[in-house]
Write a structure and sequence with these properties.
It is a single chain. This protein is an alpha+beta fold and about 160 residues long. It is built from 4 helices and 5 strands; from the N terminus they run H-E-H-H-E-E-H-E-E. It has helices spanning about 1-10, 35-50, 60-80, 120-130, and strands spanning about 25-35, 85-95, 95-105, 135-140, 145-150. A 5-stranded antiparallel beta sheet has the order 1-2-3-5-4, with helices on one face. The longest helix has 21 residues, at about 60-80. The radius of gyration is 15 Å and the shape is globular.
Length: about 160
């Protein structure tokens, strides 16, 4: 009963899969309401999914992905909430990299921050660059956008015990 209600309620708000490479071995996607509790929920989901995929907490990649998701969801709630009441949390992993992102329905595309810029997205971009990854912003076919980070999975990104 609850599943039917949820499917009916969120059917119109779910977005199509983003146009991303299809080489992911593992992927996870969930639609959430663009409200402040979603930041905590997204963080918990990210920790649970990554740990289940074998990316343990207290490693650089794990913590960077959780930080990025928290900031990206905060940006959706703060800046896109009025035009995008729902967003998608996206996680994907291959043998070589991890992608973590957020897709919303707001048509505005932020600029990718440069070195020296300030703000949450600039902090995410700086951390991701420092780890050898990248930040990407793609327009979505329905008028929204996907903002995601790509982090390399390598022994050098693990925190020594």
């Amino acid at each position: 009963m609850i599943r039917r209600w949820r499917d009916r309620r969120y059917r119109d708000h779910r977005s199509a899969e983003p146009a991303e490479p299809a080489d992911h071995h593992r992927s996870y996607r969930m639609s959430l309401a663009g409200t402040w509790p979603a930041a905590r929920t997204s963080r918990r989901i990210t920790v649970t999914v990554l740990t289940g995929w074998g990316v343990p907490p207290k490693t650089v990649v794990h913590d960077a992905a959780v930080f990025a998701i928290t900031e990206l969801v905060t940006n959706v709630v703060r800046h896109a909430g009025s035009r995008s009441p729902f967003f998608d949390l996206l996680l994907a992993m291959t043998d070589t990299h991890l992608e973590a992102g957020v897709r919303d329905g707001h048509p505005g595309l932020p600029d990718i921050p440069r070195a020296g810029d300030t703000g949450g997205l600039a902090d995410v971009a700086g951390l991701v660059r420092h780890l050898g990854g990248g930040l990407k912003i793609q327009p979505a076919p329905d008028g929204g956008k996907t903002v995601y980070v790509r982090l390399p999975l390598s022994p050098s990104t693990a925190i020594p015990q």
